[in-house]
Design a protein that fits this description.
The structure is a homodimer. Chain A is α+β, with helices and mostly antiparallel strands. Chain A has helices spanning 9-24, 52-58, 85-89, 95-102, 128-138, 150-164, 168-191, 198-211, 272-291, 298-315, 323-328, 397-400, 403-408, 415-419, 451-459, and strands spanning 29-32, 38-41, 44-45, 66-70, 73-77, 106-108, 215-216, 221-223, 243-248, 250-251, 260-265, 386-389, 392-394, 426-428, 431-435, 440-442.
Chain lengths: 460, 460
C-alpha cells in the first residue's frame, strides 16, 4: 500500500516537530485529519485531503484519524478497517503498522479518545462533519481559527511558529512539488502551438501532475484572459496574438505544495507590446528576489514590486509622474491589484485557514489602501520561510473602467497610450522563493522565465 | 462565460421536465444547488458540483442557487455577484441572463425565497452547510432521502420516475460523456507499452477528459490490482504479465456521466489463461446485453451474468457442478461478488443519494444472499433507462482465503486448477447500455471489447 512507501526519515522528522511544539506549549493537543467529502452522493467522494495541521505532525493522509500530542509524545487514534472492507478496498494497513511508520508513542481505537481530551487544545478542520465531532468530543465550543481564544489560540500561534520555517523533511517534499510543477509548465508550453483551447493546455499540464501520482495543489488557472485573476474557465479557443497565463502547481502525497505561474504567447512569439510589459513584470520579479533575506519586511518587497512596475509604466509612457509618488497614490495597483505573494507549504496559501494570524505579524492588520490591502503576508522574512513572488500586470475592466478610478487617475494614466497595449490583458510571473540564512534559493529556478527562453520552449 | 454557451434546446427541455413533474405532484418544490466545499482552507475549494436533482431541473451548475417548481413554472433564486467580484472573477452572468438561458418564469434574489417555501417539498443535498440552510428555511426537519416521508418522499418518487428514463436533451449529454470516455480509454491503451506506472496511464486517460473541458464523473480506478474493487491507488509499477483494469468515465459540464471499464494486458498480449477468463467475462457481458429490453427484470440479467460466469468456470475446470445450481449456491459470487451494474445519468450510480429508492422497485429490498445483495438495481427495464453492464472476474484474497468460504465451497472450486490462473487477478468489462423500445443501444459500443481488438489498441 502506498502509505507504506514512506521515506525512513519521516518518523524522525515528525518526532522533531512535536518536540519543538512541546517547547512552545505545555498543554495537550488533539488534531483531527477530517473525512471524505461526498460530491453528488455519499459513495462518490472528492479526493480526500487531510487537514494540513494534522499532516504536519502525523505525516500521512489518514482519514478519520486523530492524533494527541503532549510533551513530545504522539498518540494515534484510528479505527482499523472492518474485515468486510478488505473485499472492496483490499488489505489496508492496520493502526499498529501506521503507528510504526510515523513513530507514534501509542496507538488506540477512536473510542479511546473521549477519555483523553481533557484540557486539550485543537484547531477546527474544514470538513463540517468532523467539526461537529470536534465540538462534541471536546464538549466545548471550538471557534473558527481566526476567532480562537485561550489554549486554542496559543496552539495556533505555536503551530504558526513551526510551520512558518520549513525543516529538511518539508523541503524535500516542497522541492519535489516544485520539480513536478516545473515539468508541468514545460509540457504546457510545448503543447501550445498544437492546442486549440485552454482546456487542452490544462490537460497537458495536469497530465504531468497526475502521472507523478501527485495532485493539483489548487484549481488550475489556464487562461487567455489572465486579467480575470481567479479564472477557472477553460473553454476559450486560443488565438494568435493571445497570451496564455498558467497558474498550476502540484501537491505531493503528503500534502506539500508548489505554486508557479508563467505567461506565454500562444503563437510562440511575444508582440512588441507584450514583450515590453513582460520585461517590466520580470524586472519587478527579479528586483524583489534580489532584495529578499532574513529580516527584510515582506511588505517592503511588495512595495518594491509596486515601485518597479510604476517605474516601468512611466518609462513606457502609460503612467505619468514620479514612481514613488505613484505607488503612494496606489497607481501601480490599477495594473497590479493583488499582493506580491504569500506563504507556501502544506497549503498553497499556507495556513490561510487561520485567517491573517499566520500571514500578519501580531499587532498588524490589513491596510485600507487598495495597493496594500490584498497583501497576504506582512511579516519580516526568516530563514526557512517559503514564499511566492508573483508580480503581474493586468487590464481588469472592473478597475480600469471604474468611473471613480477614471476620475482619480485621469492625469496619472495616459489612457491613449494604454490602448496601444490592448493585447496585454494579463501577465504574471510567479516563483517559489525559499529564504536562506544569507538570501534566497528559488525552488522553481529550473523553469525559465526570460522572454526569449519562454518563446523557445513554446516554439519547441 | 461558459454558462452562456448552452445549446438552444436547454430551456425547452427543462420546461418539459417540470411540466412532467407537475403531472406527478401538486405541491411546490424547492431545490438547492449546494455550495463550494473547502479543501484545506476556505478559499481553496474542490471543484463545484451542483446537486443532481437541481441540475435535472435547472440545467446549469450554478452555486448557491435555489429553484422553486410549481405547476410547471420555475422560479430562480440567486444573488447577483457583488460588484467587487468582477475584480477577481470577471464579469459573471447576472440572474436575469441565467433566467433567460434556462427559461425561468421568474428570477429573484435569495432573500425573496423565505416567503415562498410554505408547504414546499425538498431533497437534502450533500453539502452540510447547504443542508443547514434547507432546514432553517423550511423551518422543519429535512431527513436524508432514504428516510424521507410525506411530500418529500412523494417528490423523491416523482423525481425517480422522471430521471429513470432519459429525454433527448439528457441523451445528447450522455452520448457526449460516453464518446469522451471512449477516447480516454483508447488513449490509456495506446500509452501502456511506454508507461511505467499506473499513474502514467491514469494521466493519459484523464488528460483526454480534461482536454474536452469535462471532469471525471468519479475517482478513476486504474490498477494492476483489479481484484481490489474500489482501488484508488496508482503507484504500482507496470510489469509484463500484468493486466491493467481501468474504470474511468467523464462527466459533462452540466453533470451527465459515463462509466466505462476495460481490462488490457500491459504487454499488449493476453496470456492464455488471461484470454480464457477474458473471453468468459465478455461472453457474460454479451449475453446480458442480448437479453435486455423493456419489461425484462434487471435482477434476471444479473443472474444471467452469474450463470454465464459459472458455465464458463465449469468449462475451464475451475468450478465443479451444474451451472444453475452453482449460481443458486452463490459460487459465481466467489469470483463476481458485485452487481451486474446500476443506473447511470447525472450520477454515475444514478440517484444513489436516495438510497435504494431509485434502484429498487417499491416493495423490494436487498437480498441477504452474497450473490445478490450487492445488486444496486432491481427493477424491470424501461425504454429510456441507461444502465451499466459490468461483469467481472476477480481473485479477491478476502473472499477466496476466507475459511468459511473454503469450507463451504471446498468441493465446488477446483483450487488446484484455480492456481493456474494466478495471473488473472481482476478483469471487468463495463459498457453503458440504453434501453430502447425494442432492445438496447450500447452508448459505448465504439470502444472495442474483443480480446484481439484490445490487444491491437495496446500494441498501437
Amino acid at each position: 500500500m502506498e502509505l507504506l512507501t514512506q521515506p525512513q526519515h519521516l518518523a524522525q522528522a515528525l518526532r522533531s516537530r512535536r518536540e519543538q511544539l512541546a517547547k512552545l506549549i505545555n498543554f495537550p493537543v488533539v488534531l483531527w485529519s477530517g473525512g471524505y467529502r461526498s460530491r453528488n452522493f455519499p459513495a462518490n467522494t472528492y479526493p480526500f485531503r487531510a487537514s494540513s495541521h494534522f499532516l504536519y505532525f502525523a505525516g500521512l493522509p489518514l482519514e478519520n484519524t486523530v492524533i494527541r500530542l503532549e510533551n513530545g509524545q504522539l498518540h494515534l487514534f484510528k479505527d482499523d478497517p472492518p474485515a468486510s472492507s478488505a473485499l472492496w478496498h483490499g488489505e489496508m494497513p492496520k493502526r499498529d503498522t501506521i503507528a510504526e511508520i510515523i513513530g507514534a508513542d501509542g496507538a488506540f481505537p477512536l473510542s479511546e479518545l473521549a477519555s483523553r481530551v481533557d484540557n486539550a487544545a485543537t484547531i477546527l478542520v474544514q470538513d463540517p462533519i468532523t467539526q461537529t465531532q470536534q465540538v462534541q468530543l471536546l464538549n466545548r465550543p471550538v471557534h473558527p481559527p481566526k476567532t480562537a481564544t485561550g489554549i486554542d489560540l496559543e496552539l495556533i500561534q505555536a503551530v504558526i511558529k513551526l510551520r512558518s520555517c520549513h525543516d529538511e523533511a518539508a523541503l524535500t517534499e516542497l522541492r519535489q512539488a516544485a520539480q513536478i510543477s516545473i515539468e508541468a509548465h514545460k509540457a504546457g508550453m510545448a503543447a501550445t502551438t498544437r492546442a486549440k483551447t485552454e482546456a487542452q493546455i490544462r490537460a497537458e499540464m495536469e497530465k504531468v501532475i497526475v502521472s507523478h501520482n501527485t495532485q493539483c495543489a489548487y484549481n488550475s488557472i489556464v487562461t487567455v484572459h489572465g486579467q480575470v485573476l481567479h479564472n477557472e474557465e477553460y473553454f476559450h479557443p486560443l488565438q494568435t496574438g493571445d497570451l496564455l497565463l498558467a497558474d498550476v502547481g502540484a501537491e505531493t502525497t503528503t500534502g506539500w505544495a508548489a505554486d508557479i505561474t508563467r505567461t506565454w504567447p500562444v503563437s510562440g512569439q511575444f508582440s512588441p507590446t507584450q514583450r515590453e510589459i513582460y520585461e517590466l513584470v520580470l524586472a519587478a520579479h527579479d528586483a524583489c528576489i534580489e532584495q529578499m533575506k532574513p529580516g527584510v519586511e515582506y511588505r517592503d518587497i511588495h512595495l518594491l514590486a509596486g515601485l518597479k512596475i510604476a517605474e516601468g509604466l512611466v518609462d513606457l509612457g502609460i503612467l505619468n509622474g514620479e514612481p514613488s509618488d505613484l505607488v503612494e497614490r496606489d497607481a501601480h495597483a490599477l495594473f497590479f491589484p493583488h499582493g506580491i505573494g504569500h506563504l507556501l507549504g502544506l497549503d498553497v496559501h499556507d495556513m490561510e485557514d487561520l485567517g491573517d494570524l499566520a500571514g500578519y505579524e501580531q499587532g498588524r492588520t490589513r491596510s485600507e489602501r487598495f495597493g496594500l490591502g490584498y497583501l497576504r503576508l506582512n511579516r519580516p522574512l526568516k530563514a526557512g520561510m517559503l514564499v511566492t513572488i508573483e508580480p503581474g500586470f493586468y487590464q481588469v475592466p472592473a478597475i480600469l473602467n471604474d468611473s471613480e478610478n477614471r476620475d482619480k487617475y485621469q492625469n496619472v494614466v495616459n489612457w491613449e497610450k494604454l490602448e496601444k497595449f490592448a493585447d496585454v490583458r494579463g501577465i504574471r510571473i510567479e516563483d517559489d522563493v525559499l529564504i536562506t540564512e544569507t538570501g534566497t534559493e528559488v525552488l522553481t529556478e529550473d523553469l525559465p522565465n526570460q522572454a526569449n527562453q519562454i518563446e523557445a520552449l513554446v516554439q519547441g
